[in-house]
Amino acid sequence: MTKPAPAEDQVLTTRTERGTYLAARRLAAAFRGDEVVFLTGELGAGKTVFARGIAAGLGMKNPRLVCSPSYTLINIYQGRVPILHLDLYRLGGQAEIRDLGFEDHIGEAVILIEWGERIDFPLDGIRVHIGVEPDGTRTIRVKRPACGRNRAVDRSRFSARGDR
To answer: In terms of Cα–Cα distance, which of 155, 151, 153, 149 is closest to 141?
Structure first.
């Protein structure tokens, strides 16, 4: 039996930080609580803003508290499900990444991984790349997991509404 071809990536353009936040909030509204989300993009692209929007979509009471875990490496928040927010930017190698222990929480929390492209070992999840155009516009590309375990991207209305 042949597997169906994967759906195309969902792509959205935002012009404001608020638009990026709202896009993430809409995506997270479809989450079940076991998602792994890789956030990639250059410094200042909006990865933490996107993480803040996901926290809001998951019902965190004060998503303004979401900040980059660049120095703490992991921040834990509570919405309708636990949220683990990691930043791999300062880590030197795969052993340091594994030592964080986040893999123990796969399936029981939403795991947001900034600089997720630094992971060299197999780990499936939703891949979000935020690109910045010269005029400051953000292009957000969301790719669903290869294994199809998680259909949040399919269930969301992420790409339909832009900056509204």
So the answer is: 153
Listed by start position, the domains of the chain span 17-147
pLDDT tens-place string over residues 76-98: 999 999 999 999 998 988 888 88
Reference 129, options 32, 25, 9, 7; nearest CA is 9
Of the CA atoms within 13 Å of residue 110, those in its CB half-sphere come to 30
> What pTM was computed for the model?
0.84
pLDDT digits (tens, 9 = 90+) for 112-151: 999 989 888 878 899 999 999 999 999 999 998 876 544 5
Give the helix, strand, coil percentages of the chain, each rounded to 5: 30, 25, 45
Note the pLDDT tens digit of each residue in 10-45. Answer: 999 999 999 999 999 999 999 999 999 999 999 999
Tokens of 94: 């795969």
Helix axes 17-28, 47-57, angle to 10 degrees: 40
87's tokens: 């930043």
**What does the alpha-carbon distance between residue 33 and residue 87 come to, in Å, rounded to a whole number?**
20
Return the CATH number of 17-147, one of 3.90.1010.10, 3.20.20.100, 3.40.50.300, 3.40.50.10580. Answer: 3.40.50.300
